[in-house]
């Protein structure tokens, strides 16, 4: 394999980070799937959310963070350890903000 001296930021010079025309409906659908799954307020790991929705774990994590924002309802997203601290496995639970019916 040939080694190049390319920097990581150079990989993204020609890529727009978000283009509504291409990304809005895909990301909205993924967000809706995560929301529908988590509405039951059950504890789930990112892997479980990913498996159930088809979204990558990183996307599921970002989506859960978004749910805390005003534009996505200001919901409560709790996290706790599953198993011992040495495992480092977190699980998440969504509690809907019923006072703010924005979703």
Task: Give your account of this protein's structure.
With 103 residues, this protein is of the alpha+beta class. It has a domain at 41-103. The protein is 36% helix and 14% strand. The protein has a three-stranded antiparallel beta sheet. β2 and β3 (90-95) form a beta hairpin. α2 (46-53) crosses α3. The protein is globular. The model has no long low-confidence stretch (mean pLDDT 83).
Tag the structure with descriptive keywords.
alpha+beta, 3 helices, 103 residues, 14% strand
Write the layout of secondary structure elements.
Layout lengths: L19 H19 L5 E2 H8 L3 H10 L9 E6 L8 E6 L8
Antiparallel strand pairs: 1-3, 2-3
Biggest pleated sheet: 3 strands, antiparallel
Mean pLDDT equals 83
Spatial gap, N to C terminus = 49 Å
The percent range for strand residues is 5-15%
Q: How many individual β-strands?
A: 3
H and E order:
HEHHEE
Could you write a compact summary of the structure shown?
The protein is 36% helix and 14% strand. It has 103 residues and is of the alpha+beta class.
């Amino acid at each position: 394999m040939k080694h190049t001296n390319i920097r990581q930021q150079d990989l993204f010079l020609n890529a727009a980070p978000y283009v509504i025309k291409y990304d809005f409906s895909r990301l909205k659908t993924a967000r809706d799937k995560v929301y529908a799954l988590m509405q039951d307020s059950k504890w789930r790991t990112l892997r479980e959310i990913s498996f159930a929705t088809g979204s990558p774990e990183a996307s599921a994590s970002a989506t859960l963070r978004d749910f805390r924002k005003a534009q996505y309802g200001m919901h409560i997203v709790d996290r706790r350890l599953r198993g011992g601290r040495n495992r480092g496995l977190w699980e998440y639970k969504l509690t809907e903000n019923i006072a703010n019916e924005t979703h």
